[in-house]
Please model this.
Amino acid sequence: MKKSYNFLSLIFFVADYLAIVGAEYCTMALRDFLVGGSKYAASAVLYVDWIQFWVLIPLVYIIVLQIKNLYSRRAQYWQILQSIAHACVYATLTIILILYAAKMSETTSRPFILLLGVLVFILVSLVRYILKKIFENMGIMQIPVLIIGAGKVAQRLVDAISYDAGMGCKIIGFLEDKPEEKKLLQKYPLLGGFDDAEKVIAKTGVDYVIICAPKMFSEKLNGLVYRIQPLVRHLSIIPN
Model:
């Protein structure tokens, strides 16, 4: 599992590099197009040193994306977008500082660096969304999740998981004594009742459990948590 995850992280790394290089090409083309019709047309074509283009700029972005844990953590897609946006801001500022420190700022277009940050955000976000959807459709990089509860709150949770490309969760089924949402059971199996939690966890080997039963009495909920917490790696409780 760890080797598979490392391989997929490598795919994201390569995809990000290609997206950054693609953003550089797009930025140069857009800058040349906008400047080409001006009085500076004679010097309109932008030149970027190959070391900056292929190594320095992509490397800075990749390092900052790594610092933001975008190759190792799972999160809701809006949180991923937020992290990518922050990474692009920090990378842009870092590149500007490096250019000034290396005394290359006079030969590098500052509007190019700023516009590049915007396009890197757009392309990296788009590429990551596409990859996440491809992995989801192929059943790759999906975490098996058991949901305890099958009511209205559980339905909202399932909808959120289904429409979010960042989480990468695969619902294996539900536990519920009195199922309320028939639509859930048409799509996912009912694996048993609340008292079957230990047996189902042992049989499926699931490590991620979400308790989504807000109508459950606090004493019964506490007892359920006490019983299954030692059996799984991650246990979450969704309030009403």
User: Anything to note?
Assistant: The first strand starts at residue 143 and ends at 148. The chain is about 60% helix and 10% strand.
